[in-house]
Amino acid sequence: MDFSTLRTLISRYCVGEENWVDSRTIFIGHKEPPPGTEAFIQQRFPDNRIVSSKYTFLNFVPKNMFEQFRRVANFYFLIIFLVQLIIDTPTSPITSGLPLFFVITVTAIKQGYEDWLRHKADNAINQCPVHVVENGKVVCKQSRKLRVGDVILMKENETFPCDLILLSTSRDDGTCYVTTASLDGESSHKVCVLYSMCVLLKYRPLGAENLLLRGATLKNTAHIYAVAIYTGMETKMALNYQSKTQKRSAVEKSMNAYLVVYLCILIGKALINTVLKYAWQADPNRDEPWYNDRTETERQRHIVIRAFTDFLAFMVLFNYIIPVSMYVTVEMQKFLGSYFIMWDDEMFDKELGERAVVNTSDLNEELGQVEYVFTDKTGTLTENNMEFIECCVDGHVYVPHAISTGSLHSTSHLCGFLTLLGHFNIIDYTSILYFRPSKCPMFMSISSYLNLFFRALCLCHTVQVKEEETVDGIKHGIHQGKSTSFYISSSPDEVALVEGMKREDEIERFELLEVLTFDSVRRRMSVIVRSSSGELYLFCKGADSSIFPRVISGKVDQEGLRTLCVAYRPLSPEQYQEVCHLLNGAKLALQDRDKRLAEAYDIIEKDLILLGATAVEDRLQEKAADTIESLHKAGMKVWVLTGDKMETAAATCYASKLFRRNTQILELTTKRTEEQSLHDVLLSGDYTDYGLIIDGATLSAVMRPTQEDSISGNYKEIFLEICRNCSAVLCCRMAPLQKAQIVKLIKASKEHPITLAIGDGANDVSMILEAHVGIGIMGKEGRQAVRNSDYAIPKFKHLKKMLLVHGHYYYIRISELVQYFFYKNVCFIFPQFLYQFFCGFSQQPLYDTAYLTLYNISFTSLPILLYSLIEQHINMDILKKDPSLYRDIAKNSLLRWPIFLYWTILGVYDAIVMFFGAYFLFDNTTFTSNGQMFGNWTFGTLVFTVLVFTVTFKLVLDTHYWTWINHFVIWGSLIFFVVFSLLWGGIIWPFLNYQRMYYVFMQMLSSGPAWLSIILLITASLLPDVVKKVIWRALWPTTTERIQVGSYTDMLLSMYLTPINWESTKNCIHHCIRVFLDNHIILLSTVNNAACQMSN
């Protein structure tokens, strides 16, 4: 018996991943092991299928049902439905089952559609063609059929289908270039190194430089051959799939809190009625009336069981106070409302050809509640388009006037610098580098530092020359419609510098010997080259903080721009041999190879001579300053989190108006904390309105308070108190993890503010995921930020409209939706509660089963759904011009408890007016003109009619933005109610066992007092709300209400002061009259027909 499968499963799931992931033996091309090889057990590897979907055809129903019934409201209504099936309840199980079925079905369709899109995306990936070498021939396979050990042929611009090891390349230097924008957001070109087979298998370990990851794209290389080593869900991309944490908006939290309150009200109602029922039945004369004798079984049941059964029956009777349909309406409102962002033409960028993208619609209303905005700098506030501005060599600053022509202005050495710069160029980055020297007679008179400085710029880089290509949908290398060569590199700064050095002249050859690659820890890179005369140089370039500690001489003077320092070190042949020995020993290490390489680099890059520094500028994005100023006026605090140096970031903050010239700046930087203790810096001064600058090192000290010094206490609280008072904050030299820590720190503060993070690169993903709302910029650093964000916009300027207009509208709409749903359900069910006092607490329903079922589904759902999609209480142009209106809705102001209580009390008042108004108006008018008596179903129908019209007219009073769609839906829903009632009670339906509503509605409409009662009760119900709004607007108007009044006044003045177009006015009036008459003729004719049928 073969126990290999069992052994594999045990080792995988019981022992741990270390036993099966880190070690695998692969035979390239699935060749058999050579004779004499030790016993080899073939390992089992997964196929190359990628699965990102949640459901399959078989498990969709049970899995989706399980997920939906985890929601409290759905589970509650399921219990109510089961109770109605099990015990004798006053209402039919259909009244709870049908709304629940509707909600579950709509949600399942939505989630099924989204999962179908995921299946579709998976199939597109799994079925894409891949060229595989089999038996010496290249055949085409689907990606899902790849296996570990397959040899794959990849061509330029193709994406790797699985994790591969490079076997062969078309480049002579044994390398290939890849971009990993889809993995880490970096659009730069990375190098993968080829090792020979014998070295690969016997002597050297495999490293990251040999690995080609799934999702990366082959660039600048004609073709390669590689072997598959990890496939399917074992690839690094699949293993790094992490489901984003479910973000919940403040509105959803308020909904859940309100739901708990109404659940308590429901239980209270059921308990009160249960107690009062048995108090009522304590009198023997009331216990068993002749018309409601109990059976023998009911008499023998224990009183506790009977009381519990009655309690459940009352719970069923009043359960409609919990608006189950509210959840599906909110889901539909969010899903459909998100399209308004994607359809917004003002948020379309012609340069990129991109629109705003909504990755999740669950946070639309959260866009209207933002209090803190955390933004990246490079590529977000700026264009991420570096331009060589100036350089400093040997203490002299050179400022270019027009780099493209080579003309520069300098404080010294002007002529010599012009000639020198005009004769440098970089051709390509291969094993042979070319340097164009000057033959100008003045060249020899210029400092040798200047000569070496420009040599270093031309030689120390990783720039590649590339023809036209497309990266993330953006074409590069197109000039005036023609293809031209352009530079590509892992750093935009390098491209800017090489562009600045690009000139035409004679060539001097340098041999590239070693490259000490850049990494984020060292923050520098170096090259070792040999000139044509045999001289050896080490050129080093990097951040000032990483170069200055390693230099022994030289000076620079650079402030306010992105700075790269350049240094060099001449090498003797003996020193070069030592360097080679160190590097080879580190590269051949089987363990801790990265650590040994870092140690070797540290030894080599020392005793440098500082040549100078380059300064590049990143231009500010269009309208970035205006956007930040608008956010400030809206009451939001803007923080800039960047990895750049303080001077560069501060200059950008001043340019973007984050800081103003008169802003008082508090610096919490390493330099200041070295001069003064952190405790004294944090506690010094009484700051009320200032700008704060803090660097990553100081932030680490703030986040990690010392335990020895009890006086210092917790610096976090002091830091937060300072930040609360500051108008703007700049955090520089920040690591990606620190960005997320800052966002988390503000989220966890005692105010619990709503945060928004916006960035364009992979280093911004952590803070985007941490913030309440994450927004990605479609910039030049790949699409990782866009894919991990909740929303994506082309440019930073579009953030203004997204928050001030869309966010404002979404919050206004959904807050009205939530409050309105609870209000109309209170109006709906409270008369049922009052009715029990007049029917001996017998659980007799006031409304018909059809009305109970369709109230939330059909009669009142569409008007509020449409309101929540298109309502505009203020014109969007006013919202953009006056950002202070955003403050009126801040801090969840429309869903606070006082407003919630007002809506609830208003609902209770309307319910009392409807019930007792109908009761007293018909106290002495119980007969119609033909002598027929009004019964309990007529009474309930009258109350229900007033209810439907009242809650609909309440929404009419709250609507400010009217279109033909509003009129069609609002008046159409009322007409539908009337028509349905006429048909429901005017036809004998064969599927009903009994028809208690037969001719009830027509009988009610045939009575003149009924018409009068409907009008009076609707007016009495709506009057207090109207009076309250008039008084509040007159005495305590908000900014929004003032503008609404002002806009109406302006409209009226424009009508009186501008010449009147009588013809168009006449047509408009005729149209309005025609619409009004058409609607009323339909209603009157319907009523007339019903009356005729009844008289017949």
UniProtKB/TrEMBL annotation:
<dbReference type="Pfam" id="PF13246">
    <property type="entry name" value="Cation_ATPase"/>
</dbReference>
<feature type="binding site">
    <location>
        <position position="760"/>
    </location>
    <ligand>
        <name>Mg(2+)</name>
    </ligand>
</feature>
<keyword id="KW-0067">ATP-binding</keyword>
<dbReference type="InterPro" id="IPR032631">
    <property type="entry name" value="P-type_ATPase_N"/>
</dbReference>
<keyword id="KW-1133">Transmembrane helix</keyword>
<dbReference type="InterPro" id="IPR006539">
    <property type="entry name" value="P-type_ATPase_IV"/>
</dbReference>
<dbReference type="GO" id="GO:0005783">
    <property type="term" value="C:endoplasmic reticulum"/>
</dbReference>
<feature type="binding site">
    <location>
        <position position="376"/>
    </location>
    <ligand>
        <name>Mg(2+)</name>
    </ligand>
</feature>
<keyword id="KW-0547">Nucleotide-binding</keyword>
<feature type="binding site">
    <location>
        <position position="764"/>
    </location>
    <ligand>
        <name>Mg(2+)</name>
    </ligand>
</feature>
<feature type="transmembrane region" description="Helical">
    <location>
        <begin position="850"/>
        <end position="870"/>
    </location>
</feature>
<feature type="binding site">
    <location>
        <position position="377"/>
    </location>
    <ligand>
        <name>ATP</name>
    </ligand>
</feature>
<feature type="domain" description="P-type ATPase C-terminal">
    <location>
        <begin position="786"/>
        <end position="1038"/>
    </location>
</feature>
<feature type="binding site">
    <location>
        <position position="518"/>
    </location>
    <ligand>
        <name>ATP</name>
    </ligand>
</feature>
<feature type="active site" description="4-aspartylphosphate intermediate">
    <location>
        <position position="376"/>
    </location>
</feature>
<dbReference type="GO" id="GO:0000287">
    <property type="term" value="F:magnesium ion binding"/>
</dbReference>
<keyword id="KW-0460">Magnesium</keyword>
<feature type="binding site">
    <location>
        <position position="562"/>
    </location>
    <ligand>
        <name>ATP</name>
    </ligand>
</feature>
<feature type="binding site">
    <location>
        <position position="378"/>
    </location>
    <ligand>
        <name>Mg(2+)</name>
    </ligand>
</feature>
<feature type="binding site">
    <location>
        <position position="733"/>
    </location>
    <ligand>
        <name>ATP</name>
    </ligand>
</feature>
<feature type="binding site">
    <location>
        <position position="642"/>
    </location>
    <ligand>
        <name>ATP</name>
    </ligand>
</feature>
<feature type="domain" description="P-type ATPase A">
    <location>
        <begin position="129"/>
        <end position="237"/>
    </location>
</feature>
<keyword id="KW-0479">Metal-binding</keyword>
<dbReference type="InterPro" id="IPR008250">
    <property type="entry name" value="ATPase_P-typ_transduc_dom_A_sf"/>
</dbReference>
<feature type="transmembrane region" description="Helical">
    <location>
        <begin position="900"/>
        <end position="922"/>
    </location>
</feature>
<dbReference type="InterPro" id="IPR023298">
    <property type="entry name" value="ATPase_P-typ_TM_dom_sf"/>
</dbReference>
<dbReference type="GO" id="GO:0055037">
    <property type="term" value="C:recycling endosome"/>
</dbReference>
<dbReference type="InterPro" id="IPR018303">
    <property type="entry name" value="ATPase_P-typ_P_site"/>
</dbReference>
<feature type="transmembrane region" description="Helical">
    <location>
        <begin position="72"/>
        <end position="87"/>
    </location>
</feature>
<feature type="binding site">
    <location>
        <position position="763"/>
    </location>
    <ligand>
        <name>ATP</name>
    </ligand>
</feature>
<feature type="binding site">
    <location>
        <position position="494"/>
    </location>
    <ligand>
        <name>ATP</name>
    </ligand>
</feature>
<dbReference type="Pfam" id="PF16212">
    <property type="entry name" value="PhoLip_ATPase_C"/>
</dbReference>
<feature type="binding site">
    <location>
        <position position="739"/>
    </location>
    <ligand>
        <name>ATP</name>
    </ligand>
</feature>
<dbReference type="GO" id="GO:0016887">
    <property type="term" value="F:ATP hydrolysis activity"/>
</dbReference>
<keyword id="KW-1278">Translocase</keyword>
<feature type="domain" description="P-type ATPase N-terminal">
    <location>
        <begin position="42"/>
        <end position="96"/>
    </location>
</feature>
<dbReference type="InterPro" id="IPR044492">
    <property type="entry name" value="P_typ_ATPase_HD_dom"/>
</dbReference>
<feature type="binding site">
    <location>
        <position position="378"/>
    </location>
    <ligand>
        <name>ATP</name>
    </ligand>
</feature>
<dbReference type="Pfam" id="PF00122">
    <property type="entry name" value="E1-E2_ATPase"/>
</dbReference>
<keyword id="KW-0472">Membrane</keyword>
<dbReference type="GO" id="GO:0140326">
    <property type="term" value="F:ATPase-coupled intramembrane lipid transporter activity"/>
</dbReference>
<dbReference type="GO" id="GO:0005886">
    <property type="term" value="C:plasma membrane"/>
</dbReference>
